[in-house]
Amino acid sequence: MCDMKFASSADVVVCGGGIAGTSVAYHLAKRGKRVCLFEKDAIGCGGATGVSGGLVTAPIFFQHPTKRHLARRSLDLYTELAQLGRFKFTKCGRVYMASSTPNEIMLRRMYSRGNRYEKFPVFSDHGGTVSGVIDNDDVELIDCPSEMLARWPFLQTEDILLALYSPEDVALDPVALCQELAKQAQLAGTSILLYKAFFNDLDGNVMMRATAFKTLCAGFPEDGIRPLARQNATQGVWTHPEPDWDLFGSSLEKLLHRCPMLGEIDHGDLICGMEAYTPDKAPTVGESSQARGYYVLNGLNGQGLSLAGGLGELLANWICDGIPEIDVAHLDVGRFLELHANSQYLMERVPEIAAMTYSNMYNSHQFHSARNLRMSPIYHQLRDAGAMFGEIMGVAAEYEACRERVGLVDMSSFTKFDIMGPDVVRFLQYLCSANIDRPIGTTVYTGMQHERGGYVTDCTLSRLSETSYFMVAPTIQQERCMTWMKYWANKMNATVHIQDVTGMYTALDVVGPSSRYLMADVTEMSMSTTDFPTFRCQEINIGMATGIRAISVTHCGELGWVIYIPNEVAQNVYERIVEAGREYSLLHAGYYTLRQLRIEKFYVYWGQDIDATVTPVECGRSFRVDFKVSHIGCAFLTPWPSQ
């Protein structure tokens, strides 16, 4: 499959000939791009694809609607290619078995997803969204062990609480599938170059390399050869570990328990493979923030075959159109920071992820490993006050305090930027859909829209001076916002400086009807509606602490202020607020309290109410848009006639 006359130039170069790489190359070729694909081994034989069991999981397994959509696109692609008859493809179905209550609940949720039509928002060619219908075949729930035994007599079913039969799961030949994708890509003009390994005899100082047509041999003279001054690059090699039956022992015991007939087999071969996992069990896809034009599709977490077909189409369209056709916020490579690439962090987190390969994670799931990587300066005080970090908890008392008295919420994890420069107004006005050219001391809630009018993020912008703003955005947007703003600053040739100050400030949300009195006590200044109205920003002092930014926006619709405190004085300020708050029965609260409060005031929540597929007009946020201002995506934002 090697092109001897390899193309001298290409629109897109794809590195890797596994299921992800061949899928991307196939879809790019269909879009008319000149593609070169490089693979150091044989197509489909290296990496995780080479040792894959060839099982394609049906869409109903996936909790997140984006993953379900991608799994559906993958299955449709494989079904279409299978009609050519060049690789094994069996629609065998799959039986999921649960012997614990949590997994029983998971199966019932899968069943509810499998017996309905689901509309999924995808961008049309003309902007806005259309509904792509995901048609799910009927699935079966079986809660009678005797019925299970009758249908599958080789299984031990006495301890099974519930079984689910999914008819859409497929078994196929993954290597042949990759080769078919590569062949179809070649027919559309893709060039493929296979890099066979070189063999070096270090003592003999000779090497050879075998190709499909000849063997290249060479030797090197020793005179004049000098060592490298330094090693400036590394090459990752995907190897397969030696079989370890002791390591596999616990899994084998579970297999023998479920299917005792396996114990009658005289001989079995063990193959060990490696897989790429991410810290949150979601693939990484998108453009790198470190190099323009460099796109990533990796970290498929043991679900490569199930998702790669759809992910390849997604990335190909992203490369061609400059924008993803669906919301990919939870898949975007920009959701991770550099600290997430720390080897110690990954070594602690990945085993927990790998253990959940066959389990679903729900929106409220919290991981238990590699925690406390970044902590608020007042972490220990909050812990001693009874805070639960990242765990689901009851919020009735905290909710009542924020509604009737005063609550204190640590919001330090929110993304924070200082944006300044002579072109800052022109720059931000083009990125934001609201009018941000407001007087100094004003705070504006706005969306940043992409070219089709959907949200890149929502944020608040507080004007600190004629040429500087303070921006606050959702926690997960830290890297994505920086990448987006740097891209447009460069494209607009705008003279602006963007500084990530997330780690420089501790943010405390003082919220509730008594917050006005508490803030007046600790600041010794008037916090009346006249002196400090809503959507305003002022620099204040609390005790001896200076340089505190107070913004009268609570992100939940209740009266209050978020105060951004320089970290070096955060503990002192926190203690003063808690001490003064005793008079008003102050109670510590958390994010879950804020989420309950914001629902009552119709405040939107990133990733749930708004995302890249939703425009401000569609989610009832037209009043936050200045339709007279020219900004990114303004052509796709038209107010309703009643407005």
TrEMBL record:
Annotated FAD dependent oxidoreductase central domain residues: 321-376
Residues covered by the FAD dependent oxidoreductase domain: 11-195, 201-318
SUPFAM superfamilies: FAD/NAD(P)-binding domain (SSF51905), Folate-binding domain (SSF103025)
The organism's taxonomic lineage, starting at the top: Eukaryota, Metazoa, Ecdysozoa, Nematoda, Chromadorea
TM annotation in the entry: none
PANTHER family referenced in this protein's UniProt entry, alphabetically: AMINOMETHYLTRANSFERASE, PYRUVATE DEHYDROGENASE PHOSPHATASE REGULATORY SUBUNIT, MITOCHONDRIAL-LIKE
Superkingdom of this protein's organism: Eukaryota
Domain GCVT N-terminal stretches: 393-628
Full protein name: FAD dependent oxidoreductase
GO cellular component term, pick one: mitochondrion
InterPro entries: FAD-dep_OxRdtase (IPR006076), FAD/NAD-bd_sf (IPR036188), FAO_M (IPR032503), GcvT/YgfZ/DmdA (IPR028896), GCVT_N (IPR006222), TrmE/GcvT-like (IPR027266)
Pfam families from the UniProt entry: DAO, FAO_M, GCV_T
